[in-house]
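Give me the 3D structure for Integral membrane protein.
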Amino acid sequence: MEKPQAERQRAREAREPGREPEGCLVAAIRLPVRIIALVVVLPVRMVWDALAVVGRILRDTVLRPLGRALAWLGKALFVWPFVALWRWVLVPTGRALGWLVKWLVVVPAVWLYRHVLTPFGHGTAWLGRVLWAALTWVYERLLTPVGHGIRWLTRHLVVVPAVWVYRWVLAPLGRAVAWTVYWTGRVLFVLPALALWRWILVPAGRVLAVVGREVWTALGHAWRVAGHVSLAVGRFLGTLFRWIFVEPVRWVYRGVLTPVGHAVRDAVLRPVAQAARTVGRAGRRALTAARESVRQARYDVRRMLFAEPRERVPVARREPAARETRTLGRSTTALTKD
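Predicted structure for Integral membrane protein (338 residues):
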């Protein structure tokens, strides 16, 4: 446990090369905080580890099979019906609607655009060009001279006096007011706030930062130590459970149940199985003999009722004997048989 602790300490020092040396306040706070954190965190860590084990068992034995069953049920109830609805209802309906829209809307709209709207648009564009030319002439010949006159009057009657008033009256007055407000706010708010920040809040923040860092470090150490303690307790409980329950059950199974089972198998089950096989073979032979007797009885009854069936007369084949020789004049092939 000390070696990983030393390695983590060296890694922390390597990440923080500019850290200041610790003072007596840090040394006085660290040990009590770590002891209290260990006492508080140890039960929490043990409960956490127990809940984690129970959660893994529930996940593997209950939640995962339940999730698979729910996934299959969801597919069966929602996905597959919607897929069938999409494939066999919506797609054919969409294709039919697309065909109807094409021939009832698109084709008439294209014809209307090509033979009605396009000529009307060309005429409207020509009329627009004529109207634009008229408006341009009015703007250049009438409105532009009037605008120039209004701009000259506005400049000399409104803009020039307003610029003079702003430059020589409003701007100096505004600077004076801004200077007064700036120094008033600085003296009344900024300087007191700066003194409060520098001489009260910064030292208090440094102390709280040291305390918070030590508390956080102590909680980390306590969590890791509690993890080792929880692991040791878990191993002890596992060993105790194994020696109290598992090993006696294993011994009973190996030392008692297995010999008893072998004895029952050799003394009872095997003779019973052998006898059952013998009885089965005898029964099969009896059934075979009974079927043969029934078949023979049916044959005898059919022969008494319908007489002996006539034997088949063998058909003489027109094939030459082995000692005779085939010639061209004999009918010895399938094509020349009578």
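Confidence is low (pLDDT under 50) at residues 16-21, 333-338. Let me know if you want a second pass.
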